[in-house]
Amino acid sequence: MELDHKISETKQKKLFTLITHLLHNPIRGVVNIHPGYSSILLTLDKTTNIDDAIRAVENILNLIQNIEPPEEKLVEVPVLYGGNYGKDLQRVVQFSKLSESDIIQRHQTGNYLVYFLGFSPGFPYLGGMDQDLTTPRKQTPRKRVPQGSVAIAGGQTG
Fold first, then answer.
1. What is the pLDDT of residues 52-109, one digit of tens each?
2. Does 70 or 133 have the greater pLDDT score?
3. Entry pTM
4. Above 90 in pLDDT, residue 119?
5. Angle, vertex CA 153, rays to CA 150 and CA 157, nearest 5
6. How far does CA 157 lie from the centroid of its chain?
7. Which residues pair with 30 in a beta bridge?
8. What's the pLDDT at 61?
9. CA-CA distance, 108 to 106, in Å (whole number)?
């Protein structure tokens, strides 16, 4: 189910509200809820009628229009930069034209919103990065990324 085709904090908060409601008031037959940037994937069991599930979600969307999103929680994540801990820091320097210390300071002081958990269990896709740190994705991604790595790809971080 698509709420929009744009990445937006406002849409994401509406999505969080919907997910919170679904977790506390499950729809019969929904076996998995997986959020995206502006969408939600509901996996149904084989016996559930998709039209019934769609109507249930539409009813919930109408119900939650004026409900406040769930309370946000601040989580601080310690990060090490450069050397063995940041093999691509020079790549960010190259594209941003900022010094290593400026990059680190800007990245550390950001307040990020977790849009969803992604390709690897627990890997958060974060919004709210300083756009001066934007760095194109690598042409060929690494085959292995060490656990705990921080990434900048395009205008996002994770």
1. 988 988 888 888 877 778 888 899 888 888 887 788 899 999 999 999 999 999 999 9
2. 133
3. 0.78
4. no
5. 45
6. 9
7. 44
8. 83
9. 6
Tokens 């990434």 locate to 151
The residue written with tokens 């820091």 in the block is 89
Q: Quick check: 12 and 69 in contact, CB under 8 A?
A: no
Total number of residues shown for the chain: 158
Cα→Cα distances 125→17, 24, 96, 120, Å? 18, 24, 21, 11
Describe the crossing of helices 9-24 and 50-63 by its angle, rounded to 10 degrees.
110
Structure tokens at 53: 């599930």
Give the amino acid at 8.
S
Q: Are 89 and 115 in contact (CB under 8 A)?
A: no
Integer Rg of the chain from CA = 19
82 Cβ partners below 8 Å, 6+ apart?
89, 100, 104
Closest CA to 72 of 128, 122, 121: 128
User: Hey, what amino acid is at 115?
Assistant: Y
